[in-house]
């Protein structure tokens, strides 16, 4: 049986509670969110000023003065509540939101009940607007429908006719205020999404620089360490200054190259090729006394995989220099694969390092895969595979161990 897919948390739903969390204090840009709250609260406050006219009508209406003043007091409390609700309601818990809407409805409907006037139910437009802001849309619409039907039925029963102008005012003002809330809700979430995208972009760039710096400096420093050790042994054993100077010259050139790579990495202009990495691997392995069995040409490798395979060779050879006592290192390449094998002892550090994790991420970016682990017959093996060509229906053949 096919399972029902889980609903996307960002997908609109009439039964979903409005998320106004972006109105909470944000350290990045508090001004934008503060302005949204001021706009919504000001719109509600201006609309609530119409309640002053309602209080004046109640004051001039005939009836017991105590009842009149009680109704005016309720209207005043209702107006104050309508102005405070947009400020505090959106960041309140769900039960408090329900309580806020319920209290506003009681305060808004009480004058109509006390004065037995269904026309006063038109003032509930502000409570309905707050309901649209704080409650799930399904519940708010049902509440609005019940209010409109209640006013129509009460007018028909009490007066024998329906004042459609009052009903239209109830619906129109509610829709207008609800639109203001919806626009601010949408704008606020767009601002929050923009901030999140900006943070993600910074995080991704930081990860890119860290990964590239690891690849650049890890290989360069490992090779320079090996060559420094060789230079020291030359001076200690034979004292051949000319040979030692040659090693130091190579070290100087490597340092310049590493510095250029660091600058290019930071600027995101660094390019790398499989040929250049194989040349660097040959020099580093020779300096470490490791016999290198490398391909003479890389023409068979697909162009879109050349750079990422260069990173694979660089990292794998660096691990051979740092974590292995290998005497031989073999590199084999194909159109969509590269394999690096050594005959040394593999270590957990080599298999779980940040470098191989970074390679996995690089290959995933080109829909490739990385395998690493003990090689058949001993040693350690790293195999990187790119995606099979679209025109080639046959799956990639598994590499035979060297």
UniProtKB/TrEMBL annotation:
Q: List the protein's name.
A: Two-component sensor histidine kinase
Q: Name one GO molecular function term.
A: phosphorelay sensor kinase activity
Q: Tell me one Pfam family matched here.
A: HisKA_3
Q: Which of UniProt's keywords are assigned here? A: Kinase, Membrane, Transferase, Transmembrane, Transmembrane helix, Two-component regulatory system
InterPro entries on file = HATPase_C_sf, Sensor_HK_TwoCompSys, Sig_transdc_His_kin_sub3_dim/P
Question: Per the record, which residues fall in region Disordered?
Answer: 369-402
- What is this organism's lineage? Bacteria, Bacillati, Actinomycetota, Actinomycetes, Kitasatosporales
Q: Which residues form the Signal transduction histidine kinase subgroup 3 dimerisation and phosphoacceptor domain?
A: 205-271
The record's annotation in Gene3D superfamilies points to: 1.20.5.1930, Histidine kinase-like ATPase, C-terminal domain (3.30.565.10)
Q: Where are the transmembrane segments?
A: 66-86, 98-117, 137-155, 167-187
Q: Name one GO cellular component term.
A: membrane
**Native species:** Streptomyces reniochalinae
């Amino acid at each position: 049986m096919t399972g029902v897919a889980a609903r996307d948390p960002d997908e609109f739903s009439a039964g979903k509670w409005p998320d106004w969390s972006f109105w909470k204090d944000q350290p990045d840009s508090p001004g934008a969110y503060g302005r949204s709250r001021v706009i919504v609260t000001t719109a509600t406050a201006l609309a609530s000023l119409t309640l002053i006219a309602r209080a004046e009508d109640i004051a001039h209406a005939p009836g017991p003065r105590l009842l009149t003043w009680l109704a005016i007091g309720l209207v005043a409390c209702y107006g104050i509540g309508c102005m405070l609700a947009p400020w505090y309601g959106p960041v309140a818990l769900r039960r408090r939101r329900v309580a806020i809407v319920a209290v506003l409805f009681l305060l808004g409907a009480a004058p109509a009940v006390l004065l037995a006037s269904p026309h006063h139910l038109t003032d509930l437009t502000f409570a309905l607007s707050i309901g649209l802001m704080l409650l799930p849309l399904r519940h708010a619409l049902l509440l609005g429908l019940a209010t409109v039907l209640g006013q129509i039925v009460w007018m028909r029963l009490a007066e024998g006719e329906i004042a459609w102008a009052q009903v239209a005012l109830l619906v129109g003002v509610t829709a207008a205020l609800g639109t203001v809330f919806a626009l601010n809700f949408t704008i606020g979430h767009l601002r929050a999404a923009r901030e999140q995208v900006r943070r993600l972009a910074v995080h991704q760039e930081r990860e890119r620089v860290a990964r590239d710096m690891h690849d650049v400096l890890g290989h360069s420093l490992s090779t320079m360490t090996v060559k420094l050790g060789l230079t020291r042994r030359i001076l200690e054993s034979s004292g051949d200054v000319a040979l030692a100077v040659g090693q130091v010259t190579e070290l100087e050139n490597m340092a310049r190259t590493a510095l250029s790579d660091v600058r290019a990495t930071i600027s995101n202009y660094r390019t790398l090729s499989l040929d250049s990495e194989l040349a660097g691997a040959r020099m580093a392995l020779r300096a470490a006394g490791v016999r290198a069995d490398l391909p003479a040409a890389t023409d068979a490798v697909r162009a879109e995989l050349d750079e990422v395979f260069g990173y694979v060779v660089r990292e794998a050879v660096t691990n051979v220099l740092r974590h292995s006592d290998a005497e031989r290192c073999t590199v084999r390449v194909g159109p969509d694969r590269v394999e690096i094998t050594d005959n040394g002892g593999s270590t957990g550090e080599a298999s779980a390092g940040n470098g191989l994790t970074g390679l996995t991420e690089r290959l995933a970016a080109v829909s490739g895969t990385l395998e690493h682990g003990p090689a058949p017959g001993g040693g350690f093996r790293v195999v990187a595979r790119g995606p099979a060509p679209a025109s080639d229906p046959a799956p990639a053949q598994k590499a035979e161990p060297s």
